[in-house]
C-alpha cells in the first residue's frame, strides 16, 4: 500500500506555541503544515485548498473546536477530512462532544510526539484507504454504469436484433406460406395438366386391334362385325367409303383373317395403272402379243392364284376391262393377251371405291352386272368425323408410329388438342389425320404433341348437294339403315328367321325375301 508522504496537515490552535510545537514535530517528517489560529481561518483554508488531516484545538475563542468540527463534517466537500481534536484534559465529556461533532480521534496536551505521529499516520492511512475506497466505489460505480450502459445498449441491440429476427421469421413464414401456395398452385396446375393429358401409353392397352384397324367406336364395331363375318368365307367384298377411311386396311385385315392368308394379297390400283397396260397387268401377255411385248408377262390374277386380289378404286376401271373382270369373277377364267389358252384361277376378290357405284351404273360408267357381282357383301367405312371416339386411339397409334420412325419421345396429348382434332371435319379422313400427326410429331418440341395446323377453313362441306354425302348432314343412306335394322332384329330374335317371333314376321317380310336381303347384304350368323 503506498501513501503520499507530503500530506498537508492543517493545525488549528489559538496558541502560537502549540502551533510551533506541532510544526516542529511534523515538518521534519515530510508533512506540509498549514497553520490557522482560529476556527474561521481554518474553515477558509479548508475551502480554498486540499487538506489531508485537521488537528483541531477544542478551546478557542469565538468558535470552539467542536463548532469547527461540526462545520467540516456538515459540508459534503470537506466531510471526509479526518479531524483530530486536541484537548488539554482528555476528559470523557469532551470526547463525547467531539465524537458527536464528528471527530475521528483525540490527542492530549501536552503532546506526546510519538502518539501524535502514530495517530496522524494511522488517520492518514485510514483516509487514504477511505479515499481509495471512495475512488474504488466511484470506479465501481463507473464500471457499473458503463456495464449498465453496455448491457442496456446490448439489450437494445438484442431487442432490435430479436425484432428483426421476428420480422424475418414472420417474413420467412409468409414467404414460405406463399411458396406453399405457389406449390399448391403448381401442383393444381400439374394435376390439371395431367388430367387434361391423355397418356398415350395407357391407351395402348385399350387399343382395339383388328389387324391394323385401330378404333373401338360403335361405327367401327359394325365394320369389325362384318369383317369377322365375311373374312373366313370366299365371298367377294365391296368396300365403300370416302377416301382415306381405311378401305385398304380393311382389305388387308380380311385377307389376313382368311384361310388364304399364307397366299399373296395382290393389290391393283385401277386409277394408277395406265389404261393401255391394265389388261396385260391383270391377265398377263404372251411374247409378241403386241408391238414391244418382247417378254412373257404373268398377270396379277395369275400371281394371286390361291390368294386375294384387292381391286382398289374399282369405280375408275375402264368399261372394256370391266367385262373381262366380270368373266373372271363369274367363271374364275381368263386368257393371257396373245394366247388362246384359258387359265383357271382361284382368287378371292375384294374391291374398293370411294365413288357411288349406283350413280356410276345409272350414268352408264359402270357395268350393272359387274356391280351386282361385286356388291355381294358391302362394307361401308364410316367417315372419321362420324367416329370421333376413335380419334384418341388413332392419334396414339400414329404418334407411336412416328415416334419410332423419327426417334421422338412424345407421350402426351392435351385434351385441348384432342378436342381440336375431334371438332374437325376431316374430309381426307384417317389419311389426313395421319399426315397431321406426322407433321405435329416433326414440329413438336418436348414430350407433348403440339398440333400447329389450323383447321377452321376446311370445316364446311364443299359440295353439300352432291349425291351420297348424306352423312355430312347426320343422315345414313337408306341401304345402310336397312342393313343395320335387319341385323338388329336378327340379333333380337336369336337369328330365328321364320315362324312366330321370327325376324321375317317382325319385319313384315316373307322369310324368302328376308333371306334374299340377307344374302344381298352379306348378313350371316357368326
Ligand atoms: N382404322 C385405321 N387404323 C389405322 N390406320 C388407318 C385406319 N384407317 C385408315 N388408316 C390409315 O390411313 C391411311 C389411309 O387408309 P387407306 O389407304 O386404307 O384408306 P382408303 O379408304 O383405302 O383410301 P382411298 O379410297 O383414298 O384409297 C393409311 O395409311 C392407313 O394405314
Structure description:
It comes from Geomonas silvestris. GO terms for molecular function: ATP binding; sequence-specific DNA binding. Helix 2 (39-48) packs parallel to helix 3, helix 3 packs parallel to helix 4 and helix 6 crosses helix 14 (391-406). The protein is of the alpha/beta class. The chain is rod-shaped, with a radius of gyration of 65 Å. The protein has helices at 16-26, 39-48, 65-74, 92-101, 113-196, 200-206, 218-230, 247-256, 275-283, 300-303, 319-331, 357-362, 368-374, 391-406, 415-422, 429-443, 478-492, 503-507, 511-521; strands spanning 8-12, 32-36, 53-57, 83-87, 105-108, 197-199, 209-210, 213-214, 237-240, 265-269, 284-285, 297-298, 308-312, 333-335, 342-344, 348-353, 377-380, 412-414. The strands form six sheets. It has a five-stranded parallel β-sheet with strand order 2-1-3-4-5, with helices on both faces. The structure holds adenosine-5'-triphosphate. The site of adenosine-5'-triphosphate (ATP) has 20 residues, from strand 8, helix 8 and helix 16.
**DSSP helical segment count:** 19
What value does the Rg take, in angstroms? 65 Å
Runs in which pLDDT lies below 50 for 5 or more consecutive residues are: 199-209, 457-467
What kind of assembly state do the chains in view correspond to?
single chain
For the secondary structure, the number of strands is 18
Mind describing the biggest β-sheet? 5 strands, parallel
Task: Name the CATH superfamily assignment of the domain at 233-376.
Answer: P-loop containing nucleotide triphosphate hydrolases
Given helix and strand content, the structural type is alpha/beta
Distance between the termini: 130 Å
Estimated share of beta-strand residues:
5-15%
**CATH architecture group name of the domain at 233-376:** 3-Layer(aba) Sandwich
Name the overall outline: rod-shaped
What fold name stands as the CATH topology of the domain at 233-376?
Answer: Rossmann fold
Bound ions, cofactors and other small molecules, one mention each:
adenosine-5'-triphosphate
Strand order of the largest sheet: 2-1-3-4-5
CATH class label of the domain at 233-376: Alpha Beta
Domain Sigma-54 factor interaction: 213-442
Keywords: ATP-binding, Nucleotide-binding, Phosphoprotein, Transcription, Transcription regulation
Organism: Geomonas silvestris
Domain Response regulatory: 8-124
Amino acid at each position: 500500500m503506498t501513501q503520499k508522504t507530503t500530506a498537508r496537515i492543517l493545525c488549528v490552535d489559538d496558541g502560537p506555541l502549540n502551533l510551533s510545537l506541532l510544526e516542529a514535530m511534523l515538518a521534519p517528517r515530510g508533512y506540509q503544515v498549514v497553520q490557522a489560529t482560529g476556527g474561521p481561518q481554518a474553515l477558509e483554508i479548508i475551502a480554498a485548498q486540499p487538506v489531508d488531516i485537521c488537528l483541531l484545538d477544542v478551546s478557542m475563542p469565538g468558535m470552539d473546536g467542536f463548532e469547527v468540527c461540526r462545520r467540516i463534517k456538515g459540508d459534503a466537500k470537506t466531510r471526509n477530512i479526518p479531524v483530530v481534536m486536541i484537548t488539554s484534559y482528555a476528559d470523557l465529556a469532551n470526547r463525547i462532544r467531539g465524537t458527536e461533532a464528528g471527530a475521528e480521534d483525540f490527542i492530549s496536551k501536552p503532546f506526546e510526539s510519538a502518539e501524535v505521529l502514530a495517530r496522524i499516520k494511522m488517520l492518514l492511512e485510514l483516509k487514504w484507504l477511505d479515499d481509495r475506497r471512495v475512488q474504488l466505489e466511484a470506479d465501481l460505480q463507473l464500471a457499473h454504469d458503463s456495464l449498465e450502459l453496455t448491457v442496456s445498449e446490448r439489450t437494445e441491440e438484442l431487442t432490435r436484433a430479436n425484432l428483426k429476427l421476428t420480422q424475418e421469421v414472420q417474413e420467412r413464414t409468409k414467404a414460405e406460406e406463399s411458396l406453399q401456395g405457389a406449390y399448391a398452385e403448381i401442383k393444381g396446375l400439374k394435376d390439371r395438366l395431367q388430367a387434361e393429358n391423355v397418356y398415350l401409353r395407357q391407351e395402348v392397352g385399350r387399343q382395339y386391334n383388328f389387324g391394323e384397324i385401330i378404333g373401338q367406336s360403335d361405327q367401327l364395331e359394325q365394320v369389325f362385325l362384318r369383317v369377322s363375318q365375311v373374312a373366313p368365307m370366299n365371298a367377294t367384298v365391296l368396300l365403300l367409303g370416302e377416301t382415306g377411311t381405311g378401305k385398304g386396311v380393311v382389305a388387308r385385315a380380311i385377307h389376313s383373317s382368311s384361310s388364304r392368308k399364307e397366299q399373296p394379297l395382290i393389290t391393283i390400283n385401277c386409277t394408277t395403272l395406265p389404261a393401255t397396260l391394265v389388261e396385260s397387268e391383270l391377265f398377263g401377255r404372251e411374247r409378241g402379243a403386241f408391238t414391244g411385248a418382247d417378254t412373257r408377262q404373268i398377270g396379277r390374277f395369275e400371281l394371286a392364284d390361291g390368294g386375294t386380289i384387292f381391286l382398289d378404286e374399282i369405280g375408275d376401271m375402264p368399261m372394256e376391262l370391266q367385262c373381262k373382270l366380270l368373266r373372271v369373277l363369274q367363271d374364275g377364267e381368263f386368257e393371257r393377251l396373245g394366247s388362246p389358252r384359258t387359265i383357271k384361277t382361284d382368287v378371292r376378290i375384294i374391291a374398293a371405291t370411294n365413288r357411288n357405284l349406283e350413280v356410276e351404273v345409272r350414268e352408264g360408267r359402270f357395268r350393272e352386272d359387274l356391280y351386282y357381282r361385286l356388291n355381294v357383301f358391302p362394307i361401308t367405312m364410316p367417315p372419321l368425323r362420324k367416329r370421333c371416339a376413335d380419334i384418341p386411339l388413332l392419334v396414339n397409334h400414329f404418334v407411336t408410329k412416328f415416334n419410332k420412325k423419327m426417334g421422338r419421345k412424345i407421350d402426351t396429348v392435351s385434351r385441348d388438342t384432342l378436342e381440336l382434332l375431334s371438332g374437325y371435319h376431316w374430309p381426307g379422313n384417317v389419311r389426313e389425320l395421319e399426315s397431321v400427326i406426322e407433321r405435329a410429331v416433326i414440329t413438336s418440341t418436348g414430350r407433348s404433341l403440339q398440333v400447329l395446323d389450323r383447321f377452321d377453313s376446311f370445316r364446311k362441306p364443299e359440295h353439300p348437294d352432291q349425291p351420297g354425302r348424306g352423312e355430312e348432314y347426320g343422315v345414313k343412306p337408306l341401304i345402310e339403315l336397312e342393313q343395320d335394322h335387319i341385323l338388329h332384329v336378327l340379333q333380337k330374335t336369336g337369328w330365328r328367321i321364320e315362324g312366330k317371333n321370327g325376324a321375317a314376321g317382325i319385319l313384315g317380310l316373307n322369310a324368302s325375301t328376308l333371306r334374299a336381303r340377307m344374302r344381298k347384304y352379306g348378313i350371316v350368323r357368326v
